[in-house]
Specification:
The chain is mostly helical and 221 residues long. The chain has ten helices and two strands, in the order E-E-H-H-H-H-H-H-H-H-H-H. The protein starts with 13 loop residues before the first strand and ends with a helix. This is DUF1985 domain-containing protein.
């Protein structure tokens, strides 16, 4: 789908030409797919957090410099020695794992953004933060910044992009997405995946050409 992108001016919208009509991926579609909080707030990427003694102590327990965000690798290491931690500290560690592994989803050794990672010290604020909007921005900044040629890496909640493809190309979703029979909501929970990459490109092209052919027949017949 990224190979079918249209050149548009809006930074946080992605349009792909699938058959005769383009399909859009924007914050609206993203929110519908994942059902996370996507509300607007100021200073989304740089929330103010006080560097308290409690924060400094927790970062020391993580084995991370207080001015840096933990990497996925450091989070995994912390899980191996967190048994004696307090309930709140273990909860903070779990939230950091979600943040590093799904919201940002960068390379294992790449630090996360410290300003957002520090929110784990304010659990109520953390739990009400618009993480859906954060995840969308991380994903779109990554998608818009890549050159579609050969192998490439996308940061962020790429599963949302994958499910968007499945919903835009229903035949592809049925054959490759391994949809669940009970059709759970939100849509990101409705597919198991698993069928791999074999002939995936050919399947996309096949449905695109089928859509074009079907539409042309309706127009000219």
């Amino acid at each position: 789908m990224l190979g079918f992108q249209l050149d548009i001016k809006k930074k946080y919208e992605l349009w792909s030409l699938v058959g005769p009509e383009p399909v859009r991926f924007s914050l609206l579609e993203f929110e519908n797919l994942i059902s996370l909080n996507c509300e607007y707030i100021e200073d989304l990427e740089r929330p103010h957090c006080v560097i308290s003694k409690e924060l400094t102590s927790f970062w020391e327990m993580l084995g991370v410099h207080v001015e840096a965000g933990p990497s996925t690798q450091e989070i995994i290491t912390a899980f191996e020695r967190c048994e004696g931690w307090s309930r709140d500290d273990r909860k903070r560690l779990a939230y950091l794992a979600i943040f590093t592994g799904y919201i940002e989803e960068r390379k294992y050794s790449t630090p996360t953004r410290v300003s957002q990672a520090r929110l784990v010290m304010e659990l109520e604020r953390l739990e009400n933060y618009p993480w859906g909007r954060v995840a969308f921005k991380v994903l779109m900044d990554s998608v818009k910044g890549i050159y579609i040629s050969g192998c490439y890496t996308i940061n962020g909640l790429v599963q949302a992009l994958q499910v968007w493809v499945y919903t835009a190309l229903p035949e592809l979703g049925a054959n490759y997405g391994n949809p669940l029979s009970n059709n759970p909501s939100p849509p990101i929970l409705a597919y198991k995946g698993r069928k791999g990459r074999r002939q995936f490109k050919e399947a996309i092209l096949s449905q695109v050409f089928t859509a074009i052919w079907t539409t042309s027949q309706k127009i000219y017949n």
